[in-house]
Amino acid sequence: MSKNLVFILLLSLLVSCTMGGYDTGDGEDSYYVAEMIDFNISGTEVRKGVLDDSRTLVLEQPIKSSALKKIAQDSVNNYCRLMIHYNKKSAAADSVVAAAVGYNSVLMPKIVLADTVKSEIKTDPIALTSMWLASNKKYINMDFAIMTDGAASKPHYLGLVCDSIVRRQQSTDIFIRISHNQNGHVAAYHEYCLMSISRKQLEKLVTDGGTKPTSLRAAGDAETDGLMPFKVIIGVPTFSGTATREFWL
Questions:
Q1: Quick check: 199 and 249 in contact, CB under 8 A?
Q2: Stated pTM of the model
Q3: Residue 94 burial (C-beta neighbours within 10 Å; 0-12, 13-18, 19+)
Q4: Separation between Cα atoms, residue 62 and residue 64, nearest integer Å
Q5: For the segment 40-70, what is each residue's pLDDT rounded down to a tens digit?
Q6: Which of 243, 175, 244 is nearest to 209 (CA)?
Q7: DSSP letters along 157-172, please?
Q8: In whole angstroms, what is the distance from residue 29 CA to residue 23 CA?
C-alpha cells in the first residue's frame, strides 16, 4: 500500500542535556567517556543500560525516566537510545559503574521502501563525520551535522529509504539512502546529530522483502558459519556528492 515517506523531525529531537554541573580543566570530571547505550524506561528512573559492546552500565545516580520519555524512540516498548557521557568509577569484564555527566538523543528513523513513497525524496547535503558498526553488531551508527539557521519554525527532516534488496548467491544486499529535507534553512552554522540503524529493523526489512529469517547470519557469528550474511550499502548525501558506506551483518 502506498504511503508517504516517514521523516524524523531533526531539530525537535536533538536534545543535549547536562545532569548537574561539572568542572572544566584538569578536575575530577575532566576525563569522561561517550558511548551509545540502550535504556529501558518503563520505571520511574533509570539506573542501568546496555552499551554497544554488550556491557552493562550502572549509574551511581539514576536518571528520571520522565526526562528520557520525551525523546524515547519507542515509547510503546519503553525503549530509549542515547549517547551517554560518563566518568568511569569502576569496571569489570561485563559491567561499568559510572557517574553520568550528560547525554544526547540518537535519531532512529524508520526505513521505508522507495516504491511506497509518494512525495519527493529530498537529498539535501549533510556533513558526515563517521559511520561505524557497533561491536555487538546490533546497530550501524552515524554522527554528522546539518547546516541550519536555527529557525525552530522550519525543522529539518531526516529519513531512510530502501531502494532495493538484492538476493545474491552468497549474501543479501540492502541498498539504503539517507533522505534529508533542509526545509529552506540558510547554511549559517552546524548542528550536531547522531543516528542509529538497528539490526532488527534491517532483518525485518529483508524478511518482509521475501528472504527467510533463517538465511540471516546471527550477530557475532563468523561469515563462514553456513548461514547467509547480509550487506548494507548506505548512500549519504554530502557536500562533496554521495558518500557510500558498506557494512556486513
A1: yes
A2: 0.82
A3: exposed
A4: 7
A5: 998 899 999 999 999 999 999 999 988 888 8
A6: 175
A7: EEEEEEEEEEE-SS-E
A8: 6
